[in-house]
Amino acid sequence: MAVLKVIEVLSNSKKSWEDATARAVKQASKSVKNIKSVYVQDQSAIVSGDSVTEYRVNLKITFEVK
After folding, report:
1. Domain with 51 in it
2. Phi-psi region of 7 (alpha: psi -120 to 50; beta: other; left: phi over 0)
3. Is 1 domain-assigned?
4. H helices within the chain, ranges in order?
5. What is the C-alpha separation between 52 and 66, in angstroms, rounded?
6. Quick one: pLDDT at residue 66?
7. Residue 54 belongs to domain with CATH number
């Protein structure tokens, strides 16, 4: 039987929400092993003038505890 743990992570990107998510997983995987899934809980963006300048995600990363 596997035991899973969930952590909450915040990330940002100047490109997209998808890039922010990928960056979060890449960074988290440096210290968290056995990542199984990611759940994007919330998305937001920073706007300057008439353009989006930064994409932000709040996500939950699920990993297996050995």
Report:
1. 7-61
2. beta
3. no
4. 17-28
5. 41
6. 86
7. 3.30.1660.10
